Automatic annotation (TrEMBL), chain A:
Pfam families: Cytochrom_C_asm (PF01578). This is Heme exporter protein C. The chain crosses the membrane at residues 56-84, 96-117, 129-149, 161-181, 201-221. Required for the export of heme to the periplasm for the biogenesis of c-type cytochromes. The keyword Flavoprotein does not apply. GO terms for biological process: cytochrome complex assembly. It is a multi-pass membrane protein. Keywords: Cell inner membrane, Cell membrane, Cytochrome c-type biogenesis, Membrane, Transmembrane, Transmembrane helix, Transport. One of its GO terms (cellular component) is plasma membrane. One of its GO terms (molecular function) is heme transmembrane transporter activity. Its main location: membrane. The gene is ccmC. Belongs to the CcmC/CycZ/HelC family. Residues 13-184 form the Cytochrome c assembly protein domain.
Automatic annotation (TrEMBL), chain B:
Residues 53-77 are annotated as: Disordered. This is Heme exporter protein D. InterPro entries: Haem_export_protD_CcmD, Heme_exporter_D. It comes from the Bacteria. Keywords: Cell inner membrane, Cell membrane, Cytochrome c-type biogenesis, Membrane, Transmembrane, Transmembrane helix, Transport. It is a single-pass membrane protein. The keyword Endoplasmic reticulum does not apply. Required for the export of heme to the periplasm for the biogenesis of c-type cytochromes.
Length: 246, 77
């Protein structure tokens, strides 16, 4: 067990193992997103109330899932970095933040666009929408805080702390639709429980969600490797590795 | 297939702008993210290579006196 943890500490080990994993996640993401897109846009039946505008769900829900999952992953990485001083965890947290912010933006944007035909408004200061907007600001705060220090280590620790504190917002987002009376509909989709949606609508959504998760994993592996190159430029193994690539 | 014609598919029952707008922005953003990650990686590889080359050049330049001395000898001959 300790041997394994010590291996995880080594950016070199991470760099080689992620190279093997990465193509599988990219391939899975491409396949799932392609199948999910075609199925969701062209083959899933139209909703009896919302008509075809409901198809926005296939980008809205996966993006919203990812926005929250990435924040939790970032907070866990921050904790791992603070407790065990594992640098790779901090590098992963660094690259997760912009993707999380992008996914939060996608969830908010697609939700706003969806709101126009269904609610008649693109924005409401509703509990779910407001807590998602706070999530976007938390992401931007984490990114800004990381860059606000002269020493990288101080920035990393500040960003980790903000991520760990900000994770409080995640259960608020999740239960906002139950705790407050909101315009936003309650969860129509769960991975574990039975769903209210018919299979022909639900299956493409599951595929899209899995596709988005594979995309997140693939991109995080890729960009963490880049972050290793950036921070370990002076290490002998990085320089030898570059020689081999040429 | 939920649509009977291609026109119907693009119209999305009058909600075309919303559906295609939401999907379009999502797809565009994801493509930009992937493009940026690739760009970032190739830039970093290049900069590490440049650094290695500079270091090699530096370590060679310390050997230059030997080389130039040899060349001088050859020139004299």
């Amino acid at each position: 067990m300790w041997a394994f943890i010590n291996k995880l500490r080594s950016p070199k080990w991470f760099y080689s193992i992620s190279a093997k994993l990465q193509p599988w996640f990219w391939a899975a993401a491409a396949l799932l997103l392609l199948v999910g897109t075609v199925w969701g846009l062209a083959f899933a039946p139209a909703d009896y109330q919302q008509g075809n505008s409901f198809r926005i769900i296939y980008v809205h829900v996966p993006a919203a899932f990812l926005a929250q999952s990435i924040f939790v992953s970032m907070a866990i990485s921050g904790l791992v970095f603070m407790v065990w001083k594992i640098k790779v965890a901090d590098m992963a947290a660094t690259v997760m933040a912009p993707l999380g912010a992008a996914m939060t933006f996608v969830a908010l944007f697609s939700g706003a666009v969806w709101g126009v035909p269904t609610w008649g408004t693109w924005w409401m200061w509703d509990a779910r929408l407001t807590s998602m907007l706070i999530l976007l600001f938390l992401y931007l705060g984490v990114i800004a805080l990381r860059g606000a220090f002269n020493s990288r280590d101080s920035g990393s620790r500040a960003a980790s702390v903000l991520a760990m504190v900000g994770v409080i917002n995640i259960p608020i987002i999740k239960y906002s639709v139950d705790w407050w009376y909101t315009l936003h509909q309650p969860a129509s989709f769960t991975i574990t429980g039975r769903s209210a949606m018919p299979m022909e609508m639900w299956a493409p959504l599951l595929i899209m969600v899995l596709g988005f998760y594979c995309f997140f994993i693939a991109l995080t592996l890729m960009r963490t490797r880049s972050e290793i190159l950036r921070r370990e430029t002076n290490k002998r193994w990085v320089q030898e590795l570059v020689e081999e690539v040429r | 297939m939920a649509f009977s014609s291609l026109n119907e598919f693009f119209a999305m029952g009058g909600h075309g702008l919303y559906v295609w707008g939401a999907w379009g922005i999502t797809a565009l953003l994801m493509l930009v993210i992937v493009w940026h990650a690739r760009q970032e990686r190739s830039q970093l590889l290049k900069s590490v290579k440049r650094r290695v080359r500079r270091q090699n050049a530096h370590s060679q330049s310390t050997q230059v006196p030997v080389n130039s001395a040899q060349r001088d000898v050859r020139n004299d001959a």
